[in-house]
Amino acid sequence: MMSAIARKRAALKWAFVRQIMIFGTICLIFLTASGFPGQLGAASVNSPDLPHRAKSPRSAPTPNALPPKIQAQVPVYPPGTMPYHEGEQFVFQASWIGIPAAQARFTIRTSRANDSHWLAEGWVQTNSFADIFFKMRDYVREDVIKQSLAPNQMYIRQSENKRQDEYIVDFNRPTSIVTITKRNHKGSFSREFISNNGFGMISGGLMAVSQPLEAGKTYNFDVFSGTERYVFSFDVTEREHVHLPLGEFDAWRIVPDVLYWSDGNLKGQGRDTILWVSADSRRLPLRIQSATFIGYVRADLIEVDDGQVMRAQ
Q: Is residue 234 part of a domain?
């Protein structure tokens, strides 16, 4: 019994670390997505534009709402200046206790279906070493309204070991309903949530980096992954220098926390994770580091703009 409880706790910790790694690394926050903690990478995946919104599938009769005390901690932020430009691409190298484990790639472009929307995409892939323990080839794309940085729809494909799952997250602002639909060989299952200011994994990151960053600022966001809902808090603690293979950067040190998780209580579990974002108008997601039960996982930005190595300015 005790060993089963220990395994369950370890699995929860493992899953949470991966949530932090993905949502934070691929856009400051590619902080949300369950498995090996350093799984960030670039896979070759065909990625057509998102289809037009379809009628939400049938789901639970009672949508999930945030507890009032948590809801009161989630303000509505006006979108700031979008720091990334058309076609910009970021590549990250992730390691566990110094051992390269995975890569991630994130890019953003105008949607072919609607030129007032961004289409943001991310690929995550473990390397041959990590594949021995946990093989992952994940993909996410999100349709984001340019003017407001609000999400329209998010699609996630998870290929992890033998598991193959797809998720579609629909954000219906007029009705304040977010619908998460999971599809796999077993069928389809949907859940509904009440949210008038929810974000996806990438749109949450874009909104965060568009905000004024300075020591003492704290930002809270209502974020949806393919499976759960989280309220993340980001505390901008100080300004410091970060050394990467790309060079030396002046960066903001940001400490995330989890204020709410729809399937449990993870308050305080984000304290072992730190994000660094460049302290200039580029707002480059430079590094994310998170402690695990053995050592730490780290993801560093290694390339910007179509694979061309960028030097610090």
A: no
Q: How many domains does the chain have?
A: 1
pLDDT, tens digit only, all 313 positions of the chain: 545 544 444 444 444 334 433 433 333 333 333 322 333 222 323 333 444 443 433 434 468 999 999 999 999 999 999 999 899 999 999 888 888 888 989 899 999 999 999 999 999 888 898 888 888 899 999 999 999 999 999 999 998 888 899 999 999 999 999 999 999 999 999 999 999 999 998 999 999 999 999 999 999 999 998 888 999 999 999 999 999 988 899 999 999 888 998 876 544 444 478 999 999 999 999 998 887 767 778 889 999 875 344 433 3
Strand partners, 117: 145
Please indicate, yes or no, if residue 271 is contained in any of the structural domains. Answer: no
* Cα 142 versus chain centre, distance: 11
Q: Whole domain around residue 16: which residue ranges?
A: 2-46+57-208+288-304
Do residues 205 and 31 make contact, with C-beta atoms less than 8 angstroms apart?
yes
| Apex 209 CA angle, 208 and 210, nearest 5 | 90
